[in-house]
Design brief:
It contains 16 helices and no strands. The protein has 317 residues and is mainly alpha-helical. α3 runs antiparallel to α11 and α5 packs antiparallel against α6. It is globular and about 65 Å long.
Length: 317
């Protein structure tokens, strides 16, 4: 992957103050158009899902499904089929299993941990088989899955990623209102007839699809940059749920677009840039909140200034 980036960087025109010409230069390359098409859909879907992951405290599920994605890709490589088939089938199947085995948060964590242990064991088996039979030409498959290869997408792969992202986003928006109710107060929602268990299962399936498609952009190891970062930032900045949902999707889109642009003009990997942008944004918001609380506490505990009249009265004669 690093070799591909180095070759591309050698033929890229340098960045100029003329932003319009810079955009035209980027869009003049097929690989950049495909990356922007897939990256936009991935970012919008992952950003919207990120808000509900943080709200529902399901970061562990996202972590588990990212490991499942690697196992699914290795399984597809061993079987000699398209890696995307292994990614989508693996993540969606395990998401369904987690949703069916675990209901409440504690039971869900147990189900995730048990499933994850088995999936990782299966991944070790696939890795052993794959490394013993893989040649030098296909040995980069594992690296691409781990760290992403969005600049290497074909037109067909980019279109598939765009449709998958649009479908996941549409399904999430369709169930967003009842899912929000079920996430904030599941007991009251169940009492009012909201299908809490079915909504949780549907969300896990959407999460599985999002993980499978996002692997192409940031890879398995750095997928949390899109699945947790935007939602964590949005929840700290905005209190209104749907405004936070929109902000989370917008932040993910900015991270991907800026990451792709920086990767176009620098020799650094896209996944590293996207994850760094997400981390730095969250860190700035966190430090800003800490500074605001510190300043408010300092103002609250500071002694009140006396007025001139009070000083004159209190001065001894």
């Amino acid at each position: 992957m690093m070799g591909i980036d180095t070759v591309l960087f050698s033929i890229i025109p340098p960045f100029s103050p003329n932003l319009i010409e810079d955009v035209r230069a980027m869009l003049g390359f097929d690989f950049m158009r495909y990356a922007l098409l897939a990256g936009t859909a991935i970012a919008l879907a992952a950003g919207a899902v990120s808000y509900f992951i943080v709200l529902r405290h399901q970061t562990f599920a996202g972590d588990a499904l990212s490991d499942v994605a690697f196992t699914g890709a290795l399984g597809a490589a061993v079987l000699g089929i398209n890696l995307l088939v292994g990614l989508f089938v693996g993540t969606v199947a395990v998401a369904l299993g987690i949703g069916l085995l675990g209901g409440r948060a504690r039971a869900r964590d147990v189900a995730i941990g048990t499933t994850l242990a088995w999936v990782l064991g299966l991944g070790v088996l696939f890795l052993s088989i794959y490394t013993s039979t893989a040649s030098g030409s296909n040995g980069a498959i594992g690296v691409n899955v781990l760290f992403g290869t969005i600049f290497g997408l074909t037109a067909q792969q980019a279109t598939l990623a765009a449709w998958a992202g649009a479908g996941a986003l549409a399904l999430l928006l369709l169930i967003a209102r009842p899912l929000l109710f079920a996430s904030l107060d599941p007991d009251v929602a169940a009492a009012r007839g909201v299908p809490v268990r079915a909504l949780g299962l549907a969300f896990l399936v959407i999460l599985g699809v999002t993980v499978a498609e996002a692997v192409q952009a940031v890879g398995v190891l750095l997928i949390f940059s899109l699945l947790v970062g935007p939602g964590a930032v949005a929840r700290r900045l905005v209190t209104r749920p749907f405004a936070a949902l929109a902000l989370s999707a917008g932040l993910a889109l900015v991270f991907v677009w800026v990451g792709l642009t920086l990767a176009f003009y620098t020799p650094y990997p896209v996944s590293f840039l996207i994850s760094t942008l997400a981390f730095c944004t969250y860190l700035l918001v966190l430090l800003g909140a800490q500074g605001q609380r510190f300043w408010a506490q300092r103002v609250k505990t500071a002694p009140a200034k006396k007025e001139p009249e009070e000083l004159a009265v209190s001065r001894p004669t």
